[in-house]
Amino acid sequence: xxxxxFLLFLFLFTANTFxxxxxxxxxxxxxxxxxxxxxCYGVNKIKNPHIDKLAxxxxxxxxxxxxxxxxxxxxxxxxxxxxxxxxxxxDIAPGNAGLIIPTNTPTLPAMLQKAGYKTAAIGKWHLxxxxxxxxxxxxxxxxxxxxxxxxxxxxxxATADRVPTVFMENRHIINLDPKDPIEVDYKKKVGNxxxxxxxxxxxKMKLTEGHAQTIVNGISRIGYMSGGKKALWKDEELxxxxxxxxxxxxxxxxxxxxxxxxxxxxxxxPRAPNQQFVGKSGLGPRGDVILQLDWTVGEVVRALDSLKLxxxxxxxxxxxxxxxxxxxxADFANEMLNGHTPSAHLRGGKYSAFDAGTKVPFIAxxxxxxxxxxxxxxxxxxxxxxxxxxxxxxxxxxxxxxDSFNMxxxxxxxxxxSRPYIVxxxxxxxxxxxxxxxxxxxxxxxxxxxxxxxxxSGNSENGLLFNxxxxxxxxxxxxxxxxxxxxxxxxxxxxxxxxxxTRLSK
Length: 506
Fold this sequence. Notes:
It is a single chain. By secondary structure, this protein is α/β, with parallel strands linked by helices. The chain has 9 helices and 22 strands. It has helices spanning 2-21, 49-57, 71-80, 108-114, 238-252, 284-306, 384-391, 408-411, 483-498, and strands spanning 24-30, 59-61, 64-65, 118-124, 152-156, 168-169, 172-173, 183-185, 215-216, 219-220, 224-226, 258-263, 313-319, 362-365, 373-375, 379-380, 422-425, 431-435, 438-441, 449-450, 455-456, 464-467. The strands form 6 sheets. Strands 7-6-5-4-12-1-13-14-2-15 form a 10-stranded mixed β-sheet, with helices on both faces.
């Protein structure tokens, strides 16, 4: 009996010690931030001291990629370890979409739960909520984050430019008055609220394209909404609410390992910075919300410092896709660039098959473990699943995180070895493959330049081929000169498409 009690004590002691040693993980996932949008990547028109600190004292990657050039598929891939283009319905989700991650799909947060982590999703969601057909906004909203591995959530349900413009906590809308139920429709007008199309004189932010439906807080949105007046947010306060809830979650879980998926709204449209940032960047509202993003990073780090958690916390900072300037609102993003180059030397931007669509800032910071350095290792956000599983000693089932490579050594700066290739995914479904400094963009339909955003798409009837070592800005198409190289990469891309578990066959 005494021996049994001793073994039980030893087991509990060992488990508790292991749990205490497990690093906290904070993933700060920002929105539409370009490779050239932050000062630690060589920008001189704007300063981001808090992000710069992470880069200076951590590992700054120069060859890191989101999986897609738009937000919904990038988020799907990050949380599932599976390329979003493998599953239908993972394009940019409407605000009333049902949950697009099936509840029986293994996820990054669920894997970390098994490792003893408390998990939270705070900020922008945009992965759908509720059953097929969308949620009942006035009742219990499920399935959602809590059904796929998160213990807690505080969400912007979709994007700030889409209705409903309300916060959701766990499975309910915050501050919802039952006598004023929410109704949402993306096809026809509901209620009597003014719209941007009918009442442009009520707008405090004019339009360039779309976003002409229900007006909330002086800004018209995509989609129609009525009701829920007490629950409506103010755009200028979004960052503050997201930061506050993040700090609160950290404080509540200071005695156990936690995973915080902090998805900021900045710098997605509509860009409505808090008054403390208005005019401070000299680059207009887009620059001001980059400063606001930096402030959010600072608030999180300050909380970790105050609780003495910093040394044993891995912070990963990245963006869901590349930059866009005019994305439907007349916020003078183009006119007030003042020499700023959001894409740096890269071609394209958000929505694009060119590199600026998916090549993004990526920083890993963990004072206890990561030595300050710059890494040229090629890494994809889809790799975070397998890498964090390795970090927390969680075995993966054969079909779990099928496209996620274990890049833990690269993530921690212990190796400069790259993943064997990068697959990129553009808004129209076009895929690209980067391997051994060559990039092949498969044939794709659509305009060469997207209207309104004025972003080069990478669409080409025959496909495109670039030597990125000699031509990192993708200016010289070598398809006609190197047809055998293009054919070889096209066959490799086809093999990747057909292989449902790529992480087992590098």
